[in-house]
């Protein structure tokens, strides 16, 4: 957040509101998106949300102002809220009850491991590759690529 704050000249209140909007967007869309996931193909819902989420991640990196970052970042969280609900429904629909706990545990462990591994190189990469936008551009690529895989 600090490199973005400095580059865009954000106040502490604006930087904080970006994070708040990020979480409020997820909260507001959890139930409607969960309803959609239950009524539509879980596999396709997760794929579409991964692609759209990644597209908004990329668009966030293009932001040049407070609103230019706020709007796509908030929409990105909406899509992510559906992804988490969809992946849980998808996993519970594929695996038998006796192995669901283990599979969900492995999945959640890998999410945390991926986030943890991402923190190390970020600051160095930011400085070497041109600023706060770099992670938004890089992390958009896997979601777009992998979003196509489950729908095929």
Care to describe what's here?
The protein has 152 residues and is mostly helical. Helices cover 88% and strands 0% of the residues. The chain has 6 helices and no strands. The chain has helices at 2-8, 12-39, 42-61, 66-94, 97-129, 133-148. It is globular.
- Kindly state the percentage of residues in helix: over 70%
Strand content: under 5%
The number of helical elements comes to 6
Uncertain stretches: none
Instruction: Give the total of beta strands.
Output: 0
Inertia-based shape: globular
Rg, nearest Å: 17 Å
Q: How would you state the average pLDDT, rounded?
A: 80
State the end-to-end CA separation.
Answer: 36 Å
Helix-strand category: mainly alpha
Query: Can you summarize the main beta sheet?
Result: none
SSE string, helix = H, strand = E? HHHHHH
Task: Chart the SSEs and their pairings.
Elements: H1 2-8, H2 12-39, H3 42-61, H4 66-94, H5 97-129, H6 133-148
Helix pairs in contact: 2-4, 3-4, 3-6
List keywords for this structure.
6 helices, single chain, mainly alpha, about 150 residues
What is the gist of this entry?
The chain has 152 residues and is an all-alpha fold. The chain is 88% helix and 0% strand. Helix 2 (12-39) runs parallel beside helix 4 (66-94).
